[in-house]
Design a protein that fits this description.
- The chain contains 6 helices and 6 strands.
- It is α+β, with helices and mostly antiparallel strands.
- The strands form 2 sheets. The chain has a 3-stranded antiparallel sheet with strand order 1-2-3.
Length: 157
């Protein structure tokens, strides 16, 4: 955040960015985020509700291979590998974090006109943190790129 002429502005703070120190008005970002959420909510709620085919996680496969290697070494008489093997097995059993946001839960809220516009900064922040993956300044003083959680690409507003 920064202030220019008494108004809040969002500014790029990445020193090595070609847009460092430049920014745009907070209300412009807020309006674009709200519009992106409203535009995408139905599509992303449908995608989130559709069961996805479980793809094998490469990290899980690597852990299984490591367990097999450690078990083979332990079978050769090497002592002290049991705790490591057990820890890897527990990691495989741990639930993976949710890939998508709770779009279905926010569908009704996003569909009501004026609700997000009337929300406090804290209320809007909670919604944005749940549903928006990234807001990227693209150098245009009137536009940001918005990437939503669970979307396959970006949604430039």
């Amino acid at each position: 955040y920064g202030v220019a002429h008494g108004k809040l502005r969002l500014k790029c703070t990445h020193l090595h960015c070609s847009f460092w120190g430049r920014g745009l008005a907070e209300w412009k970002v807020q309006a674009q985020v709200i519009e992106a959420l409203r535009t995408a909510v139905d599509q992303l709620a449908t995608i989130a509700a559709t069961p996805a085919a479980a793809e094998p996680d490469p990290a899980d496969q690597a852990k299984r291979e490591q367990i097999a290697q450690l078990e083979a070494i332990a079978a050769q008489g090497v002592q002290g590998l049991a705790p490591t093997i057990e820890a890897l097995r527990l990691e495989l059993l741990a639930p993976s974090p949710a890939v998508s946001a709770n779009w279905a839960g926010y569908r009704e809220l996003l569909a009501r006109p004026g609700v997000l516009e009337a929300a406090t900064a804290e209320e809007l922040r909670a919604v944005v943190l749940e549903l928006v993956q990234e807001v990227r300044y693209v150098g245009d003083p009137n536009r940001v790129e918005i990437i939503l959680r669970g979307s396959s690409g970006s949604d430039a507003a």
